[in-house]
Amino acid sequence: MLAIGAGCESRTDSRKPSPQGVALWRALGTWSGRGNSQTGSFTVETGALRLRWETRHESAPGAGRFRVSLHSAISGRPLQVIVDRTGVGADVSFLEDEPRVSYLVIESQNVDWSATLEEAVGGSR
Fold this sequence. Notes:
Layout: E1 24-34, E2 37-38, E3 42-44, E4 48-56, E5 65-72, E6 78-86, E7 89-96, E8 100-109, E9 112-121
Antiparallel strand pairs: 1-9, 2-8, 3-8, 4-7, 4-9, 5-6, 5-8
């Protein structure tokens, strides 16, 4: 018969638990409107972003469109599409990008919209 656990010692770990990392969100800008818009430039430092957005008051069912894309403020080139939505709704979109100066282009038809862009900054509990 095999004895399992023979020679094992009971041990208590006296180390303190390491602090848990948490994301703190810093607002880069809040915008709202109806129709197309381009935001002013903002500086992305960490590259971890989230866009909280909402569309409402659609003129006619199925006629609303909302599209948000991130652009380089240096070259003007589009970097990525964040949201492409038909109709009304709300969501949070997470994205990663390189640290740089950027801006958003918002294309909207037949809906009111609002958007808040935030960047994750380090923190701990």
